């Protein structure tokens, strides 16, 4: 099991979520389209050679974005990351993929 975290501007929030959900992310038991999202502000400075969706090369840009978190089964993670990259408006979307420990790896000790 993996956790996927990505950052996306509000204008593309639902489209990117739809793409990764369709590829298999966000399923927990008998529930689909599960995620956590929080609003925040991202910043970046496009370097020479970049083709920024927002902003200009050499100029610091601040953008209202969402941080979106969801789980993904091992079998779907490659397709999910591909769907994220295809649906995301940024040339280089920011995202993390973390392997999660299995629940049986935790033992409650009183």
From TrEMBL:
InterPro entries: DUF34/NIF3_sf, N-reg_PII/ATP_PRibTrfase_C. It comes from the Bacteria. SUPFAM superfamilies: NIF3 (NGG1p interacting factor 3)-like. This is NGG1p interacting factor NIF3. It comes from Cellvibrio polysaccharolyticus.
